[in-house]
Write the structure tokens for this entry.
Amino acid sequence: MIKIPQQIAILLLAFVIALAQSPDTATTHVQAGLAAQRAGQCEQAVREYATALQLDPKNFGAQFNSGTCYAALERWQDAATALKAALALRPDEPVVHVTLGEVYEKLNRTSEAIDLYKQALRLDPKAPMAHRALAGCYARLNQREDAIRVLSEGNQLKPDDPELLRDLAHLYIDAGSFRAAIELLDRVTTLQPDQAVDYVTLGLAYEGLGDLQSAAKAHARSVQLEPTSAQAYYNLGVTLQKTGNHKEAIAALKRATELTPNWALAYFFLGKSYEDQGER
């Protein structure tokens, strides 16, 4: 007998109750589709949205959410068709422009994607998702200066948005502007002090600057926050090895190999740390 997880079973029961109470309303099918989508059942969700659209062809929720479901299923052309229909229903909705733009990028329709992101920003100049999407597109086109400009504009409008700060910091690291990246990451870790990945990025920025002691402190903090991450221990171990702290480097790299036993590069640096310790 197949066991259905309790969460999904509850959702399925909700579908049955909703449809029994009001089987022929578009809203009921949209709600059922949303529940299926949240449970990761995108095929079921698409069928619910299709039924909703048969009952109400101008139902924005059904059109937009079917588009996001098709995107989750990597059916990009179907996603584009659904999202274009949603955009026709609500042309002033920035999120639709951004979502359709992301799908167009998957279809290699990059110039159209950029136009959609720009239109989203015209509709809402403070929309972080639009700034991030446009900047990401520019970055993938190797137009780093344009990407930095767009994120900087977004950061001026929303100075405490951590996602904008993170994206901008990554671009500064890629550009070799390590001090600027560190300043942004310090703001991120103040806003959200418990995100291990931010300390990893901060450590990389300090390494780029040549400040290995500060890099080691940042990587040590990432280990504290995510003690089961082999990558965090690896980053710490390699940085400590560079500082000449071979004993602690060995401890960190041994832990990385325990967590990921087949990691050849971790064993390489572990061996190097043993070798360097022996030379001392």
